[in-house]
Amino acid sequence: MLNQFSTGMRSSPLIDSFGRAITYVRVSVTDRCDLRCVYCMAEEMTFLPRRELLTIEELDRLCSAFIGMGTRKIRITGGEPLVRRDIMGLFRSLSQHLEAGTLHEMTLTTNGSQLARFADELASCGVRRINVSLDTLDPDRFKAITRRGDLDRVLSGIDAAQRAGLSVKINVVALKGVNEDEFEPMVHWAHARGMGITFIEVMPLGEIETTRIDQYLPLTKVRAHLARHFSLQETDYRTGGPARYVRIGETGGLIGFITPLTHNFCETCNRVRVTCTGKLYMCLGHEDAADLRTPLRASEGNDLLNATVRDAIARKPKGHDFVIDRTDRKPAVPRHMSVTGG
Ligand code: SAM
Ligand code: SF4
Question: Helices 87-100 and 115-124 sit at what angle, rounded to 10 degrees?
């Protein structure tokens, strides 16, 4: 049953001041994670006290309010969403919007470590496609990049997801001098299993030990490298986001490139992000945010919440301005990806 806040009552869609319809919300459900990927987190992380986080019921109410204002796609992310206790309660509840047809897609970005446990339930909640982040197929390298992960667990998770009928896309962060030699084998591996694969540039988010300059590998180089091994055919396939896709002649599969630093994708941006504490970020590259937790907790009705969201959307900036600063080496945006949600 839809809860009292998700009555299916529709108000006018969210359109920002540049005429972009905001129909896609990414929701981070936790800042915690069972891994510590070198580009994402510091070795020692201080996580938020639990009381700061939105409860599962609050997350449900928030997502339902967005759906009421025209959101058609929700991606659950984190931190690692599948380490949040009772996260399946949120999936189960949101699945009612899928059944009602008000939500078109509910997806998940995960490191795959818990997928073997949850794949079947995700599928039964109406999840059809998931992104699994995996930067290497070498167990030792995987342990080094994630500082603690077990590659076999992730591979078993991917097996379970495919068995459950989920379509899997692999996200690979391109890391200079770390996984450069695996791009071609990873494309073969992913396409042989019927999975798409997307390469991501390191983004300057959050303070970590290594400097970004050390990790940064422009995707123009990744693409040039792949073009020596495959025939890359341009496609006009788009998902409304930053990824650009090419089809590989040899495998028939797609490769995506997410290049926030070398290309600008802001004109077609249809998305916003909500953190696990209920902060609404209108742009990944800007600090401006709206606190949605206060209006959520202030009253049981959604009037205040909806008004706060509408005010914030009106402030969505035209574009971002990521810079990897070569002089002071400070991140352009100080929050970690695991806080905003990837
Ligand atoms: N834990 C889940 C996972 O790893 O898929 C979901 C959250 S994670 C923050 C989402 C995505 O952000 C992952 O694909 C990860 O590789 C990517 N990511 C994290 N930090 C990044 C950074 N500084 N630059 C580019 N991508 C990053
Ligand atoms: Fe965890 Fe995902 Fe960040 Fe890796 S990228 S530390 S798996 S949140």
Answer: 30
DSSP codes of every residue in 288-312: -EEE-HHHHHH-SSSHHHHHHHHHH
Specify the pTM.
0.91
Ligand nearest to the CA of 133: 1
> 3-class SS at 248?
strand
Nearest residue by C-alpha to atom 1 in ligand 1: 80
Q: Give percent of the chain above pLDDT 70.
A: 85
Is 243's C-beta closer than 6 angstroms to any atom of ligand 2? no
Atom of ligand 1 nearest to the CA of 342: 10
> What distance in Å separates the CA atoms of residue 275 and residue 104, rounded to the nearest whole number?
22
CATH class of 24-340: alpha beta
Number of the ligand closest to the Cα of 199 = 1
51-79 per-position pLDDT tens digit: 999 999 999 999 999 999 999 999 999 99
Instruction: Supply angle C-alpha 241, 191, 136, rounded to 5.
Output: 80
**pLDDT beneath 70: ranges in the chain:** 1-10, 204-213, 240-241, 260-265, 321-342
Residues with CB under 6 A from ligand 1: 33, 39-40, 77-78, 80, 109-111, 133, 171, 173, 200, 202-203, 205, 337-338, 342
